[in-house]
Amino acid sequence: MAKAVDKAYQTVRERIVRGVYPASSRITEQEVAAAAGVSRTPVREALRKLHAEGLLEFIPHQGAIVTEWTSADREDVFELRALLESYGAARAARRMTPEGIAELRRLAEEQYHETLSKTEGYLERIGDLNSQFHRRIHEFAGSSRLVTALASLIEAPLMMKTFQTYQDEDLIRSASHHLEIVRALEARDGDWSAALMRSHILGARGALRLL
After folding, report:
1. Measured between alpha carbons, how far is 33 from 29 in angstroms, rounded to an integer?
2. Residue 183 contacts by C-beta under 8 Å, 6 or more apart in sequence?
3. C-alpha dist (Å) from residue 62 to 28, 166, 207, 211
4. What is the rounded average pLDDT for all residues in the chain?
5. What are 66's strand-pairing partners?
6. Domains of the chain
7. Is 61 left (phi over 0), alpha (psi -120 to 50) or beta?
8. Nearest residue to 47 (alpha-carbon basis) of 79, 104, 76, 9
9. Average confidence (pLDDT) over 71-96
10. pTM score, two decimals?
């Protein structure tokens, strides 16, 4: 049962994040069950979990509806990320391993390369690399509560679309920030790491405000 719930949950969550299920669209138990290859019973539990994360709303006589993200939601997400991710970066700086630094540097360098090369599909790859980079820092921070709190923020539908709206200079700035954050983490400097992460998040918010 638990595996079926998780399969249904991951199927719907990924489709919401990727925009397959757009905001305000209705999701039925039947279509989720067919897409995930499970029965309707675990689908109900999966939809309840997504509702708890704020990705779905339950509306009388309509069922499960994909939550519509507003400009106020965007401000909330960025403010929370600025607070929590800067804290996480400071914690991670005290716990980083050489292997962890190497992994983060690889992700940051790949993102920078994708930004410059701009080959077909580069925006999707940048989005994936960005999510991996931030998730790994959260994990290196050594707090399961922080990982849980940030998971829905960095993969919120409005965050996943960020790079689709960036100008070239915004993409370069974002990739450069990641490289700087790696340097601060490698130096084991929590204050520097936190300051860079906060600047990085607020810079992303500023770029979207200019649209």
Report:
1. 6
2. none
3. 9, 35, 36, 33
4. 89
5. 56
6. 2-66 (1.10.10.10), 71-209 (1.20.120.530)
7. left
8. 9
9. 93
10. 0.77
Phi, psi (deg, nearest 5) at residue 158: -70, -30
Q: Which two tokens stand for residue 188?
A: 């084991």
Query: Do the beta carbons of residue 202 and residue 85 sit within 8 Å?
Result: no
- What per-residue confidence (pLDDT) applies to 210? 62
Helix spans in the chain (H):
2-17, 29-36, 40-52, 71-93, 98-117, 122-140, 144-154, 157-160, 162-165, 168-186, 190-209
Rounded Cα–Cα distance for residues 179 and 184 (Å): 9
The Cα–Cα gap between 185 and 96 comes to: 7
Q: What pLDDT is stored for residue 207 in this prediction?
A: 79
Helix ranges (H only) for 118-186 are 122-140, 144-154, 157-160, 162-165, 168-186
Alpha carbons within 13 angstroms on the beta-carbon side of residue 141 total: 25
